[in-house]
Design goal:
Blueprint (H helix, E strand, L loop, with lengths): L1 E5 L3 H13 L3 E12 L5 H9 L18 E7 L7 E4 L4 E2 L12 E5 L5 E10 L10 E8 L5 E8 L5 H26 L1
Antiparallel strand pairs: 1-9, 2-7, 3-5, 3-7, 4-6, 8-9
Helix pairs in contact: 1-3
């Protein structure tokens, strides 16, 4: 999504760009309890892959400041007699909204007789903590042909709609500026 910003100072436009990239909270898998893993991939490799699966997030349905809520997702591959790839669609979420954005993201391939069973916990976080919580893949700011106009382009990971990222970023920037203003006024 691209948005024209007219009459906004460069420092505010760039702050908005940065918040669009990593300042809007989204859900990502943070901790995993591995119950059974007989695959060739180590537990840490599977946990890393799970953390990188974008999860659908609806900011209107969650309280943005409450980043301690955890959503459990479970995966039980069962045993199989043939080689099969475990996909993000095999994750079952306890929440109807917070689930992988796609059912086709590969996690691990299991050979006959191998099994994967786990409980994963997703929580709200921001990309400033870890890249798995980046709400956007790309957030760029370019000059347009018109004077005093810039173009903000946001490419979402799929967790949030791009318009939600931009609107939430505007709210977050406003909040941060007000906090800074109050901080400076208390110094006097």
């Amino acid at each position: 999504m691209s948005v024209k910003l007219k009459g906004i100072p460069l420092q505010y436009a760039n702050a908005l760009r940065r918040i669009c990239l990593n300042g809007v909270p989204i859900y990502a898998i943070d901790t995993v309890d591995m119950l059974m893993n007989s695959s060739v991939l180590a537990d840490e490799g599977i946990v890393h892959r799970l953390g990188l699966i974008p999860l659908k997030t609806e900011l209107s349905a969650v309280q943005q400041d409450n980043e301690s809520d955890r959503i459990m997702l479970t995966l039980d591959s069962g045993e199989t007699n043939e080689t099969r790839t475990i996909l993000s669609g095999d994750l079952k979420s306890q929440d109807d909204v917070i689930k992988p954005i796609s059912d086709k993201i590969p996690i691990v391939t299991l050979a006959p007789g191998q099994k994967l069973k786990l409980e994963a916990y997703a929580r709200l976080g921001r990309g400033t903590e870890h890249a798995k919580w980046n709400s956007a893949n790309i957030s760029t700011l370019t000059e347009s042909d018109n004077e005093d106009e810039r173009i903000l382009t946001v490419e979402t990971t799929g967790s949030l709609e791009p318009q939600h990222i931009v609107l939430s970023s505007v709210e977050e920037l406003s909040k941060r500026l007000n906090e800074f203003k109050n901080f400076v006024s208390e110094l006097k």
